[in-house]
Write a structure and sequence with these properties.
Layout lengths: L4 E3 L3 E3 L10 E10 L5 E9 L6 E8 L21 H9 L4 E6 L16 H13 L4 E10 L1 H11 L5 E7 L12 E2 L2 E2 L2 H9 L5 H4 L3 H6 L3 H5 L15 H12 L25 E7 L5 H11 L7 E6 L10 E2 L2 E2 L14 H13 L10 E6 L12 E2 L2 E6 L8 E7 L5 E2 L8 E6 L49 E4 L7 E5 L2 E8 L5 E10 L9 E11 L18 E5 L4 E5 L4 E7 L25 E6 L7 E7 L8
Parallel strand pairs: 5-6, 5-7, 7-8, 8-11, 11-12, 12-15, 14-16
Antiparallel strand pairs: 1-3, 2-3, 3-4, 4-6, 9-10, 13-14, 15-17, 18-19, 18-30, 20-29, 21-28, 22-27, 22-30, 23-26, 23-29, 23-30, 24-25, 24-28
Helix pairs in contact: 2-3
GO molecular function, one term: hydrolase activity
InterPro entries: AB_hydrolase_fold, CocE/Ser_esterase, Galactose-bd-like_sf, Xaa-Pro-like_dom, Xaa-Pro_dipept_C, Xaa-Pro_dipeptidyl-ppase/CocE
Protein name: CocE/NonD family hydrolase
Length: 634
């Protein structure tokens, strides 16, 4: 376990680092032994002259414990703090602060397998921390993205000393349904992440030829020849990274592999420790579903206090107001709305649970409702969509009421299903997938990017071949719209799309995208079709993610696509639109329609896919709505 400590650097004052004070003592690169003998590099910051033991703040990261996180900033302080600078600030407030490189990353030993070592390594690290004379037995964890995953992974094993967490945009509830795969499809942010990080770890640390070899590969070109295979990928120069990527891609059945610690917190809710936790994410982040599922799965126990914060942002960008081509207004920042800034919030959170400080408990749930802006174009050239914060006693919002809208043969969305024998068919050609234009994305650069955009093809987006043409003009996109709304409609909650479908292929996908359609105006003479949320479903999993089965000849079946939840005001005069298709690339991998094992087919075939839209087989969009009078509109 963690009974061995190897110190590769003596205790030293931070004064040796330019710009940092000398009232903090640091042990750099303390090598903490894990249960299998691997040592993880750990920096320990302590207030100089401390007497007695103190509470500890811990962050475990694959992004360099001595580096500069891109998100440790605020509106008032736009230049991000380095990790050492942040550690000093927290240490001066009376905390021991610990940053640790994850296994196989930067100064730590061991083999990196993404996500799967973080539970045991986190437990062993906490076990070591509480045994140290400078620790009073109380530990809080924090971190964004992967650093959020490390928190939930450790907590699942109920480690000693863990009292509170600030889980920011991550912490897998079930990586098969959000984060690695979604609706059975593979999230290709995992491919872009592996490509970029393969230049930093594993073989790249010992072989100087690896980084330039990976960097010389054209990621754009490699996306055109998916799926990748062993030795046939841009990360083949670093086998450690190619191996784990292909394993995730090709493990297409929800089996014991997906129930491992680190990627399946939902399997541990019943035994999860009594840890005070703030869960935070945002509507255009890749971890909406994970965040909400963790909150819902753990709520209800008064000994486990929870908070939930959902902004309009992309991944971790909580001090901005523009995401994609959309301006969400001055209230969109965390800063000055939920608290002074995110760091101030975390300090209060740790003071409350690690020091017993008095605290204003405030609202349990903070939600940003998008769409209260005046429309048109801002001076900077973005859609003025706007928005404002509301609070709630819970999630889903208890006051929300269901609203079902039925798909109709005339491409309408209405309150009642159509009569007759309505069905709409289209050809889905995997060689010509529907291009991704924004959405709930992260880590996709330079291939794709997240946020809100007009759903019109543009050369800036990968795969767009007809700039200026709306996606709804494609023959393989079915766009169902309401009439112009007679009143403001505030959608806030889970989103589900139930489809009755069939296909002549042994396997295929169906996608769904919720769109807020602005009417024409001077700034946007063709209107503006703003993507709100989207999802996908792979039909081989229609009988369960653990039971993939080919589609039977002539089989008609019902599927449920679960786009991420959202909160958006569809204003009077706007239309609610639902786009149905069979691909959204490069956000998700493209189904070749052959029924072959996941991520391994070298063939493709065109599928004839059909959506039924009648009373006997009523395909529908299921929303949750609130009274729009809750909002003050701009």
């Amino acid at each position: 376990m963690t009974d061995t400590l190897v110190n590769t650097a003596p205790a030293t004052s931070v004064a040796g680092i330019p710009g940092l004070p000398d009232d903090v003592i640091v042990d750099f690169n303390v090598m903490v032994r894990m249960r299998d003998g691997v040592h993880l590099a750990t920096d320990v910051y302590r207030p100089a002259g401390m007497t007695g033991a103190l509470p500890v703040i811990l962050e475990r990261t694959p992004y360099d414990k001595a580096g500069t996180p891109r998100t440790e900033l605020s509106v008032a302080r736009p230049d991000p703090m380095t990790r050492p600078e942040l550690a000093v600030r927290l240490a001066r407030l009376g905390y021991v602060v610990i940053w640790q490189d994850c296994r196989g990353r930067y100064a730590s030993e061991g083999h990196f397998t993404k996500y799967l070592s973080e539970g045991e390594d986190g437990f062993d690290t906490l076990e070591w921390i509480v045994a140290q004379p400078w620790c009073n037995g109380k530990v809080g964890m924090m971190g964004l993205s992967y650093d959020a995953h490390t928190q939930m992974a450790a907590a699942c094993l109920n480690p000693p000393g863990l009292v509170c967490m600030a889980v920011d945009s991550g912490g897998f509830s079930n990586a098969f349904t959000c984060g690695i795969r979604q609706g059975g499809a593979f999230e290709l942010k995992q491919a872009t992440w592996a490509y970029h990080r393969a230049m930093e770890g594993g073989a790249a640390l010992t072989d100087p030829r690896v980084k330039p070899a990976v960097a010389a590969e054209s990621l754009m070109d490699w996306f055109r020849v998916m799926p990748w295979g062993k030795g046939r990928s841009p990360v083949r120069w670093n086998p450690e990274y190619e191996d784990y990527l292909l394993e995730q891609w090709q493990r297409g059945t929800f089996d014991d592999f997906w129930k491992k610690v680190g990627i399946y917190a939902a399997g541990y809710y019943d035994s999860f420790p009594k840890v005070a936790t703030t869960f935070m994410s945002s509507w255009y982040d890749a971890y909406v579903q994970t965040t909400l599922e963790n909150y819902e799965g753990l709520k209800g126990d008064p000994d486990r206090p929870l908070k939930l914060i959902m902004g309009p942002w992309t991944h971790g960008n909580r001090s901005r107001t523009v995401f994609g081509d959309v301006d969400f207004g001055p209230a969109a920042t965390f800063d000055g709305q939920v608290d002074e800034d995110w760091l101030t919030y975390r300090i209060k959170w740790f003071d409350r649970w690690l020091k017993g400080a008095e605290a204003d408990e405030g609202a349990k749930v903070h939600l940003f409702v998008m769409g209260t802006g005046r429309g048109g174009r801002t001076a900077a050239g973005h859609l003025n969509h706007g928005g404002q914060w509301i609070t709630s006693s819970d999630w889903p919002v208890p006051e929300a009421a269901p609203l079902d809208l039925y798909l109709r043969p005339d491409m309408g969305l209405g309150a009642e299903p159509a009569t007759g024998e309505g069905a709409i068919s289209y050809d889905f050609d995997p060689a010509n997938p529907v291009p991704t234009i924004g959405g709930s994305l992260t880590s996709g650069e330079p291939v794709f990017t997240g946020g809100g955009f007009n759903q019109v093809e543009d050369a800036a987006f990968y795969g767009c071949t007809r700039p200026g043409m709306p996606l709804s003009a494609r023959r393989d996109v079915l766009s169902f719209e309401t009439d112009p709304l007679a009143e403001d409609t505030l959608v806030a909650g889970p989103v589900e799309v139930e489809l009755w479908v069939t296909s002549d292929a042994p396997d295929t996908d169906f996608t769904a995208k919720l769109v807020d359609v602005y009417p024409p105006c001077d700034d946007y003479p063709r209107g503006y079709a703003l993507n709100i949320t989207d999802g996908i479903f792979r039909c081989r999993y229609r009988n369960g993610f653990d039971r993939p089965e080919p589609i039977g000849n002539g089989e008609v079946f019902r599927i449920t696509i679960r786009p991420f939840a959202t909160a958006n005001l569809f204003k009077k005069g706007h239309r609610v639109r639902l786009d149905i298709s069979s691909s959204n690339f490069p956000k998700y991998d493209v189904n070749p329609n052959t029924g072959e094992p996941e991520g391994q087919s070298r063939r493709r075939r065109v599928a004839v896919n059909t959506v039924f839209v009648n009373a006997e087989r009523p395909s529908r969009l299921r929303l949750q709505v609130l009274n729009a009078d809750l909002l003050t509109q701009g």
